[in-house]
């Protein structure tokens, strides 16, 4: 069983950022209003995610670490799943390659804490904590040297965590996010921000005054978000954020479409700042084919590409650029 977990862990947990993604998605699925993330040494030394969500009751604590145990079941079709996680693989995978301490309390119940060390769990013990859940991951891959040696410097592991946190926080401006690294506050965003304010807080304060709102619909596909004016650009494409049905994605088709829209408006080595949110009927898209990946497959890629190119062009031209 433990070997199975470790093999699966390689798919779900490649580096601190992939463990962090799973933990924050769990906090979002728990309908948290505020999520706090504290990283040590790029997440290699420690990852802590605290939330004020629904919590896990005493009886379900040990089960949460069992493979394929999930409290989130898709209603009928697997595409109709509306939580971020539903495979029940993340916690057991992380706990099979690290030390995990999970404390949780359901409102109106007592709090409990459980520790799992490289797959071996203790019995829950009482813990006095506010309602919600706190998960702390340390010693990632310490007992799996073959994986540990693929980790990069704390600095680049931190960069991957920061990029992920920006994307998750942009996707959910209704949720408050705190990010700390080695005791330093990186951002602290209140819940219920509007989307342009949230995106600007995570990219560049000046984006709000230098961008246009994108909002169009075609054949059931909705494209929204904000796009920086061609006069507001960057030397690297580090601030292009794309989301499909609320999930951050990195996809060649989508980035290519954005490039196409700005093609003759920007110098060759310049990149626009954009945060675009596509809403596509679930039957038209296959998101997160693999839990650790951020790829999408569209049934009609040309429709999506065309919408982004012409939608952005029209919005930019309307602004008189
Ligand atoms: P999945 O998210 O696919 O269900 P996980 O392994 O990530 O699987 O989590 C297992 C279960 O643990 C979840 O289904 C959920 O019931 C519970 N859980 C995990 N994290 C949290 C959290 N932060 N708040 C409440 N419940 C959680
Ligand atoms: Mg999960």
From TrEMBL:
Keywords: DNA damage, DNA repair, Endonuclease, Hydrolase, Nuclease. One of its GO terms (cellular component) is mismatch repair complex. GO terms for molecular function: ATP binding; ATP hydrolysis activity; ATP-dependent DNA damage sensor activity; endonuclease activity; mismatched DNA binding. The keyword Nuclease applies. Residues 199-317 form the DNA mismatch repair protein S5 domain. GO terms for biological process: mismatch repair. This protein is involved in the repair of mismatches in DNA. It is required for dam-dependent methyl-directed DNA mismatch repair. May act as a 'molecular matchmaker', a protein that promotes the formation of a stable complex between two or more DNA-binding proteins in an ATP-dependent manner without itself being part of a final effector complex. Belongs to the DNA mismatch repair MutL/HexB family. This is DNA mismatch repair protein MutL. The chain holds residues 8 to 328 of 607 of the full protein.
């Amino acid at each position: 069983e433990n070997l199975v977990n470790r093999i699966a862990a390689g798919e779900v947990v490649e580096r601190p950022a992939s463990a962090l993604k799973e933990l924050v998605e769990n906090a979002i699925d728990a309908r948290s209003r505020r999520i706090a993330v504290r990283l040590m040494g790029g997440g290699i030394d420690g990852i802590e995610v605290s939330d004020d969500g629904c919590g896990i009751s005493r009886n379900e604590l040990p089960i949460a670490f069992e493979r394929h145990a999930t409290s989130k079941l898709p209603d009928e079709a697997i595409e109709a799943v509306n939580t971020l996680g539903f495979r029940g693989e993340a916690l057991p995978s992380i706990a099979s390659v690290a030390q995990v301490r999970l404390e949780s309390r359901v409102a109106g119940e007592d709090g409990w804490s459980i520790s799992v060390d490289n797959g071996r769990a203790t019995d829950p013990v009482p813990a006095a904590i506010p309602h919600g859940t706190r998960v702390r991951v340390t010693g990632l891959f310490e007992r799996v040297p073959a994986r540990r040696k693929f980790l990069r410097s704390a600095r680049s592991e931190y960069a991957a965590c920061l990029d992920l946190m920006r994307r998750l926080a942009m996707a959910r401006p209704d949720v408050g996010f705190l990010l700390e690294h080695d005791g330093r506050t990186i951002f602290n965003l209140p819940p219920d921000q509007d989307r342009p304010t949230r995106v600007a807080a995570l990219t560049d304060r000046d984006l709000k005054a230098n961008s246009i709102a994108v909002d169009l619909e075609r054949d059931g596909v909705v494209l929204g978000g904000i796009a920086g004016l061609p006069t507001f650009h960057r030397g690297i494409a580090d601030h292009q954020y794309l989301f499909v049905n609320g999930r951050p994605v990195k996809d060649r088709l989508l980035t290519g479409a954005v490039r196409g829209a700005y093609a003759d408006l920007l110098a060759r080595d310049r990149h626009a700042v954009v945060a675009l949110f596509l809403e596509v009927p679930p039957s038209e898209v296959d998101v997160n084919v693999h839990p650790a990946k951020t790829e999408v497959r569209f049934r009609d890629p040309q429709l999506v590409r065309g919408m982004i190119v012409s939608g952005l062009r029209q919005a930019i031209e309307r602004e008189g650029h």
